[in-house]
Structures
1.
Amino acid sequence: MKLGVNSVLFSGYDLKTAIRYIKFCGYDGIELSSIVGMVEHLTDTASDAELAEIRKMVEEVGLDLYCVEAATNILVAENRERTKRVFERAAKLGIPMVTTGSGGKSDDEESTEDSIRAIEELTQAANDMGIQYALKLHYGQSIYNTKTALRLMDEVKHSALGLNFDATHVGRVGDDPVEALDVLSDHIIHSHIRDTFMEQLQIASPPEFQTAGRGGTVPLKEVVDKMTEVDYQGGATVLEIIGAKDYELPEITAIAAESKGYLQRLIEEAKEKRGGNSSVKSSSCRCW
């Protein structure tokens, strides 16, 4: 099971800096942030020359490119067109998938139907580009818990569509994240991981308290144990920590490094629990 970092943690710095310090902290790969209003380490207008430079930077340090996070309200037509342009650039970089939330409003039938139609459109666009679309279960949006995720996967049966699982989101809406992981495991193709206080509906915790192992209420050990138990066909778990734009570089690096050490220990303990021989397989076309 490989560990990566979403470059949103380094939102106050350029991509070259993010790549350097993610590698220094011992991670295997990176998820590029393409989030308007937060940080666009990959833009939807990146030229072929700019894409070649990104590829060169990651290859020089030996990082894999796991995913692009392009969070946006996909119910807005203009945002869907932007997402399609991100798909195109991800494909050119050899990145296997792009993730967004569903947009919409939780427990609103009309909004949910609109979200599913938008997801269908984007799934086909991703497929046309030869990549996958990882739909993130997100608090407050149409697809936000186990029930709505199962509905989506039942209504949109397409090999290019999978789920992005984040225990902090499903836990905040009342689902047990370990049980949700078990139920949804056949559909999960990507994962974000962090700590926080799940009792807070909004992630109000500062970045240091999203650091894996800092004592939040996310059952990270149980989540990692379940990930290992169900043998995901994938290999990457991506640390996603938001809100660090104004943090100094040593502080950000400490957050990444501390999380790496803690999560790596959980992974090794989970493997040992299963007899030291996890059957999780790496894949160049899927990550989770």
Note: The CA atoms of residues 179 and 226 lie 9 Å apart.
2.
Amino acid sequence: MQLKVHEWGSAGAGKLAILIHGVMSSAGTWCRVAPLLVERGYHVLAPDLRGHGQSAHADSYRGEDFAADVVESLPSGADVVIGHSLGGRTLALAVDELRPGRAVYSDPAWLLSGARADVEAMAGFALATKTATAEQISQLNPRWAPEDVAAELEGFAAWDLKVMEGVGAFGDLDLPSPAVPSLVQAADPSFLVSREYGRRLEELGYQVAFVAGTGHCVHRDDLDGFMASLDGWI
């Protein structure tokens, strides 16, 4: 599938960053991150994954489907690719073909067996996204900026509820050593990246950084902390 790809900055900037959002969201999740990258000299591209944002809905939502779409829709060889949650899983499946200079996985959905209750709770929450209000989103996420709340409301309206059927069938990813220099950025506490799992990832060759006091959407809970954890990676 050819995805809708959003753009910030100039193609002549000299550096390219790609940002891949998580489930139920859209490229709008990066509305405060992308301008900061542009300030640092990047041209920024951010797709809406299948079943999200302005990209088409589909019959299949396997991990391999998300990854194939990204490979088809985005250039290889970006300086850095950042993937959040489902976007982090998608990036892990596509990284061999995308071949970025660096990869950043923000609270990635890799090890789901230990987070099954959270995944099931997310599936139960899915239907509620379609009637959610800005006030409800803000109450659930008190640290988010107003533009993050607005982007989430827009993402909720657009995403395909059937995506959760695919996500619900995801197993754990059997990760190899990283193909490119790779940072795993985790929430703290994280229901996806425990300290023990972080140590296992470090043994494989990933760098792991926990951003204290953040939930699953690190870049929305603490934008400054998110950016600080990327020192040396962007």
Note: The first strand starts at residue 5 and ends at 8.
3.
Amino acid sequence: MFEAVLFDCDGVLVDSEPITNGVLREVLNESGWAITQAECMQIFIGKAVRDERARIEAETGQALTEAWMQAFYARRNARLLAELKAVQGAVEAVTAIHRHVEGRIACASGADRPKVVMQLDHVGLLPFFGDRIFSGHDQPRSKPAPDVYLAAAAHLGVDPARCLVIEDTATGAQAGLAAGATVWGYCPDGHGRAFEGMGMHRVFHRMEELQRLFAAPIAR
């Protein structure tokens, strides 16, 4: 069906969103923004923290300095290393897909690359991706712009139209669709309402569903 598969990282391969957003809420509260956990998830999931610079500075009354960001990264990384797990079924799904498309997979994330590499290594997925890890921080524009998915497809030498993107947020899905890829939405909770009206090709709820779709032998 596809020549390559491009995975988002947070919320698709690793169950990191509650951890990262929990730490972010803590540091924002300490900086003077009395944001709730639900509000933090709604505003920041699928986005780089720096992309909300204006909102953070307005709510805290402080400049978003590099020192603030590095302190957040350090606390975030420590919590991730202590608590992070792979999304249930993700390791098995990646294994099946890696075999099916003969290694033409990549991870294309809106997060900073060191975080993505650390997380994949921590849950045992890094060997499947090797140097095929791309961060929106390293592109002219991050998600919802398509740049990170276009970069991943170009590295693999595959037309984006022949790529499948796996995303769990509307922001990321918008990026994949803008790149011209087929986008499937992973929605472990609820009915995929976040993807309504976006032209998604499929919404699935368990990684086992994804694994089964790629379990058949490759047709030659």
Note: The chain has a mean pLDDT of 93.
